Design the sequence.
């Protein structure tokens, strides 16, 4: 088999860390030109340097997914540098792990605007470029919460919402050969659930550095371990590639059975 993404140009949000970084590495290794898009400039540039050292093609673009004008600039940069844009991976998300009572309106807005509005704005910006290219593939980031909501209002609404957005996108652009699918990971070992970031604060109670919390997540996974970022990247790779040429509007769970 040749390189599975030869000729593709992929814009990957959240590409500086965790699952987005794993996609950037894997996609570049499989022949894609990669646009690492993130609010973390240092981390994003480091990823691009790593890809270049390994012989791949990549550029960094500063992108806050909540800003429509930044999306226009990012898509223009991808097309301007590599000639087209054919793959969009909407990874960026946010979470505040508090109860319904404790969740503030501000927290709700950050979760919704990053994980859901960000993917909507990205789709709006990328579709015209994909049309010009004769087709494309959009892969959105779901969660266990896309299926089993839990009690966190913003996260539940954002992750069920992105499943709706995925299906609406798939149906709207199917005739134009633009596909859209959702990947729903289980518990993935990334900074999102380990460290404390502004977009995803963790305390000792919620971090997987806490052995008790780690054990609880493993026990909630029938396959008995956490998911590694590269295992999610392989699902994104498949859906981005022509191997998935007739697959649109699906929710691919990659969770070790956590939603069964
Ligand atoms: N880690 C898990 O267990 C898990 C499970 C299911 C779904 N998810 C989803 O995965 C995504 C997070 O990915 P990760 O787990 O690899 O986390 P991560 O923290 O390693 O990476 C998230 C990246 O997104 C970037 N980012 C945050 N806000 C942004 C914004 N406004 N614009 C652009 N970039 C932004 C961060 O800078 C970071 O580089 C979220 O959508 C989250 O809901 C995570």
Sequence:
């Amino acid at each position: 088999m040749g390189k599975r993404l030869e000729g593709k140009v992929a814009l990957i949000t959240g590409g500086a860390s965790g699952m987005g970084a794993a996609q950037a590495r894997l996609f570049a290794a499989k022949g894609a030109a990669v646009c690492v898009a993130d609010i973390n400039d240092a981390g994003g540039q480091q990823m691009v340097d790593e890809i270049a050292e390994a012989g791949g093609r990549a550029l960094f673009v500063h992108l806050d997914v909540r800003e429509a004008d930044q999306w226009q600039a990012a898509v223009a940069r991808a097309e301007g540098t590599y000639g087209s844009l054919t793959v969009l991976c909407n990874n960026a998300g946010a979470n505040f792990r508090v109860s319904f009572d404790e969740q503030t309106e501000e927290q709700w807005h950050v979760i919704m605007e990053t994980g859901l509005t960000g993917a909507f704005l990205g789709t709006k910006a990328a579709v015209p470029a994909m049309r010009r290219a004769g087709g494309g593939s959009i892969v959105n980031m779901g969660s266990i919460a896309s299926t089993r909501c839990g009690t966190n209002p913003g996260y539940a609404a954002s992750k069920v919402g992105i499943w709706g957005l995925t299906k609406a996108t798939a149906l709207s652009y199917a005739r134009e050969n633009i596909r859209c699918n959702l990947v729903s990971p289980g518990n993935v070992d990334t900074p999102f659930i380990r460290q404390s970031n502004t977009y995803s604060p963790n305390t000792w109670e919620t971090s997987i550095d806490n052995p008790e919390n780690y054990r609880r997540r493993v026990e909630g996974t029938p396959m008995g371990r956490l998911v590694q970022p590269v295992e999610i990247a392989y699902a994104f790779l498949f859906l981005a590639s022509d191997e998935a040429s007739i697959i649109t509007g699906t929710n691919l769970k990659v969770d070790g059975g956590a939603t069964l």
